[in-house]
């Protein structure tokens, strides 16, 4: 956390010294960069791959949670009133 704050402070100081003209120049370069068709295509591909990875991660997490729930000790206890008996919740310290 300290590293982020130090980095932000350094960026602020350097930005303040560079002035408004340099800031405007950087903004223009950024807009030109992001308007480039190759950059836009690559960004869209990266977004699609990230979405696919997120879906796969969600599926893997769901499967792992289901397997863990099946192995849970209270799953093998007898049912009480039609419901599976669960262990009492103990508060965390």
TrEMBL record:
<feature type="region of interest" description="Disordered">
    <location>
        <begin position="62"/>
        <end position="93"/>
    </location>
</feature>
<protein>
    <recommendedName>
        <fullName>YtxH-like protein</fullName>
    </recommendedName>
</protein>
<feature type="compositionally biased region" description="Basic and acidic residues">
    <location>
        <begin position="62"/>
        <end position="81"/>
    </location>
</feature>
